[in-house]
Known about the structure:
Elements: E1 6-8, E2 27-28, E3 59-66, E4 72-78, E5 80-81, E6 92-98, H1 103-114, E7 119-126, H2 132-139, E8 144-146, H3 159-168, E9 173-176, H4 185-190, E10 195-199, H5 214-223, E11 227-228, E12 231-234, E13 244-247, E14 250-251, H6 258-281, E15 285-288, E16 293-295
Parallel strand pairs: 6-7, 6-9, 7-8, 9-10
Antiparallel strand pairs: 1-3, 2-5, 3-4, 4-15, 10-12, 11-14, 12-13, 15-16
Helix pairs in contact: 1-6, 5-6
Residues 98, 100-104, 133, 177-178, 198-200, 230, 266, 269 line the site of 5-O-phosphono-beta-D-ribofuranosylamine.
Amino acid sequence: METQNLSFGLSSTLPTSPIQNQKNPFFQILLKPPSSSNILTLKGVFLKPHVSFSPKSFPSKEFFQCRNCLQRIEREAITVPDSGVSKELRKKKLAVFVSGGGSNFRSIYEATLEGTVHGEVAVLVTNKKDCGGAKYAREQGIPVIVFPKAKNSSEGLSEEDLVGSLRAYNIDFILLAGYLKLIPTELVQAFPRSIFNIHPSLLPSFGGKGYYGIKVHKAVIASGARYSGPTIHYVDEHYDTGRILAQGVVPVLANDTAETLAARVLQEEHKLYVEVAAALCEERIVWREDGVPLIQSKEDPNHYK
Length: 305
Ligand code: GRF
């Protein structure tokens, strides 16, 4: 979606919010399209119950329209003190869920250390306490939670305790990175629009129950598809059905094996998950009126993809 396709402005149907009636000159409402200094005020339109705003910032809704598809897009505008100084974004707390080697977890974690992702991996959750991802987390001093409880083991949290624990860590976003268990309804409901998964195919193809690991790539090659790549999507109570947020594309080569294709897709996964994590932490997700989430470009705030 290119810059020229978007027009901005307050919708006439937008209800007047108390904030718009604010007489206090200390506040200014950002109604303009995002530009350099006010990018930092953008936020996904649905407030999560556990997200709090500082007393000097309040959310209101902005609507704008895509000229091509005529869809309305909503986002939150946050009032900020009229000081001319950009609001500092709070560092987001991330929980990463893994079941295996955790290469996606590592690349996200490294990006938080480098500052490419304005967040902190506060906790790692795994159903396999000795997997590569969990070992690496312990080496890095990241707390590890086992979930769910394994058979014949006393270790592991219940669904309720997991929710309580993630809340205690003040988790903003949950990133599934090769976590093979279905996410329980309790967790989906406790963290609305805050849980993401990466899947190694271009959903909605080659997804759903039974499509995991190397099986996905075998199916892609057998289908004759010429392109594959990772999808990052919101998580609901089912396998791979939540709203698609981002995709990356790689070619499927004539002589590919499932393993060579998997390696090419995995490289793309590392890149894509870091980009998405960065966008989440910088509050650059907006929602088109039909419920499709879009990522606002950092370099060009008038560009969405
Ligand atoms: C990735 O291919 C991801 O798409 C899938 O599980 C794999 C995890 O790999 N959900 P890693 O553990 O991050 O290396």
